[in-house]
Amino acid sequence: MRAVVYAGPNKVELRDVPEPVLKAPTDAIVRVTMAGLCGTDLHVIAGDFAGLEQGAVMGHEFVGDVVEVGSAVQLVRRGDHVMASDFAACGHCRPCLRGDHWQCAERAFFGTGTSFGPALSGAQAELVRVPLADTTLCQVPPGCSDEAAILIGDNLATGWAAVERGGIKPGDFVAVIGGGAVGQLASLSAQAAGAAAVVIVEPNEARRQFAQRHGSLAATPEEAAHMLRQITDGEGADVVIEAVGSSGPLQSAFHLVRKRGNIVSVGAHADHAWPFDLARSFTDELSLAFAIGDSIRLRQHLLRLVRSGALEPTVVVDARISLAALPEAYRNLKAQRIMKAIVLPQL
User: Fold this and answer.
1) Which of 290, 314, 332 is the C-terminal boundary of a domain?
2) What mean pLDDT comes out for the span 277-304?
3) Could you read off the pLDDT of 22-37 as tens digits, one per residue?
4) Residues 45, 163: one domain?
5) Residue 285, CB half-sphere, CA atoms under 13 Å: how many?
6) CA Rg, the chain, in Å?
7) 264 and 126 in one domain?
8) Full 3-state SS string of the chain
9) Do 147 and 6 have their domain in common?
10) 166 and 220 together in one domain
11) How far is CA 284 from the centre of its chain?
């Protein structure tokens, strides 16, 4: 089968690779009808996370048709059209039962090497093996497009996790650092949760314009603190969401948040340490949290929002491409020429 694989630092290639096979009774094989390209994929091929071997199939976002199931799979059947979480979890351990699927001891993250569990081939391919299929997969319901389903599997779940973790309430002022797909979806989620205003902080002019077209205010990093002081009577944002995944943007969040405000980071971080203003955080009673999108926990809630029209996540999709075009799309995403690419393997 054809797949996009890791070919060395900051490089991917389209290659022919062996088709996946069932390895456990709880596995399923899915024919991928749509895959996604995510900013996390750029972190992966840059070497920010360990354990990715050359030749590993990339990608952790997908929708497709079930073509084979293991003997222990009960909730999905051959022929089902399914959406997936970007990681697999067992669904029955203590963390899973309380909704903390990312903390499952059996977690495996598609297409990211061994940094977050055992290596698991990704979905930028014609077929993908899905462990723990009854938990990892669910059927795409009527009223939800495949593009919306693929976003629920990762980017929208991450944006909503930021809203949930930050405790955003109706009337709150919110700042989002980073205007990529996750940042824009965090903004749309905050708007759906009733935020009085959302300011997206983003150096790229096209991404600022996109934010303004979809209900946000927008500012460059240099303008952000002044804009927030203006709209909050000098206080700062109630909640700041960091959606970049590096220490510099996270540090800047402390200049935008009000006293007793909340900072939530949903960027994929690889740094092991960063400067932390402990004295000011104590004096101002700041809260700092980290969140990872958990589609398994959130997808039924997000499906209701999407199917009702309260959220339209597909506005971030600006490229629909073939597998063969994916290596160029990686370069375009890194250069911020695109925001979100959807991959159609049948092309």
Assistant:
1) 290
2) 96
3) 999 999 999 999 999 9
4) no
5) 4
6) 20
7) no
8) CEEEEECCCCCEEEEECCCCCCCCCCCEEEEEEEEEECHHHHHHHCCCCCCCCCCCECCCCEEEEEEEECCCCCCCCCCCEEEECCEECCCCCHHHHCCCHHHCCCCEECCCCCCCCCCCCCCCECEEEECCHHHHEEECCCCCCHHHHHHHCCHHHHHHHHHHHHCCCCCCEEEEECCCHHHHHHHHHHHHCCCCEEEEECCCHHHHHHHHHCCCEEECHHHHHHHHHHHCCCCCEEEEEECCCCHHHHHHHCCCEEEEEEEEECCCCCCCCCCCCHHHHHHCCCEEEECCCCHHHHHHHHHHHHHHCCCCHHHHCCEEECHHHHHHHHHHHHCCCCCCEEECCCC
9) yes
10) yes
11) 30
Same domain, residue pair 234 and 326? no
Q: Does 56 lie in the same domain as 112?
A: yes
User: CA 333, 338, 339: angle at the middle one, nearest 5?
Assistant: 90
Rounded Cα distance between 3 and 345, Å, is 9
Residue 337's CATH number: 3.90.180.10
Residue 166: give its domain's CATH number. Answer: 3.40.50.720
> Cα separation of 236 and 215, whole Å?
19
| Distance, CA of 67 to CA of 8 (rounded, Å) | 31
Q: Which domain holds residue 234?
A: 159-290
Residue 103: count of CB within 10 angstroms of its CB: 15
Distance CA 136, CA 129 (A): 11
pLDDT in tens, 250-271: 999 999 999 999 999 999 988 8
Rounded to two decimals, the pTM is: 0.97
- Same domain? For 301 and 225 the reply is no
Q: Which residue type is seen at 108?
A: A
Using the predicted structure, report yes or no on whether residue 49 has a pLDDT greater than 90.
Answer: no
Contacts of 212 (CB under 8 A, 6+ apart): 218
Strand partners, 2: 16
- Number of separate domains in the chain: 2
Q: Residues 185, 121: one domain?
A: no
What lies within 8 Å, CB to CB, of 135 at 6+ separation is 85, 88, 89, 90, 91, 96, 101, 296
